[in-house]
Write a structure and sequence with these properties.
With about 150 residues, the protein is an alpha+beta fold. It folds into 2 domains: about 1-90, Integrase, DNA-binding domain (Double Stranded RNA Binding Domain, 2-Layer Sandwich); about 110-150. The protein is about 45% helix and about 25% strand. The protein contains 5 helices and 6 strands. The strands form 2 sheets. Strands 3-4-5-6 form a 4-stranded antiparallel β-sheet, covered by helices on one side. A two-stranded antiparallel sheet has the order 1-2. Strand 1 and strand 2 form a beta hairpin. Helix 4 (about 110-125) packs antiparallel against helix 5. The chain is elongated, with a radius of gyration of 25 Å.
């Protein structure tokens, strides 16, 4: 972190990319603060993770933004700003992220393609012989109907 003390007020500038690249693993993990409780967590093996510590509803929470260099400094700051805005609106960013993840999973599980695949699987697993039309219907559904239906979702 770079400190400037010129003028009447001291201005603190966060981490630089050079500082981050030069950071090496130590015997114990350590933090490199960027500002606003955003920091780079450096592990003993030299791994670098972006983390943000915040409080919601009286509880300390920790959100991870990704691994450096996959998530560069500028992108980590963008993600941090987005999550801080969500927190400022009175919403727990971690709960929101989890709810979005669940909604995406449910929407994909309830798609026509997944329900059709389950139906075909069910018919194929029957002990009695499947109707003669089954193979051709399953084939036509997979080759003709599903690609057109799933490409619009």
């Amino acid at each position: 972190m770079v400190h400037f003390s010129g003028g009447t007020s001291g201005v603190t500038v966060g981490l630089t990319d050079t500082e981050i690249r030069k950071a090496k693993g130590a015997e114990r993990p350590y933090r490199m603060a960027d500002g606003g409780n955003l920091y780079l967590w450096v592990t003993p093996s030299g791994g670098k993770l972006w983390r943000w510590g915040y409080r919601f509803d009286g509880k300390q929470k920790l959100m991870t933004f990704g691994k450096y260099p996959d998530v560069p400094l500028a992108r980590a700051r963008e993600r941090h700003a987005q999550q801080r805005a969500i927190l400022a609106d009175g919403v727990d960013p971690m709960a929101r992220k989890k709810a979005i993840k669940i909604a995406v999973k449910l929407s994909s599980e309830n798609s026509f393609a997944s329900v059709a695949a389950l139906w075909v699987e069910h018919l194929a697993a029957r002990k009695e012989p499947a109707p003669r039309r089954f193979d051709s219907a399953a084939s036509r559904g997979g080759h003709f109907a599903l690609p057109g239906l799933t490409s619009h979702s």
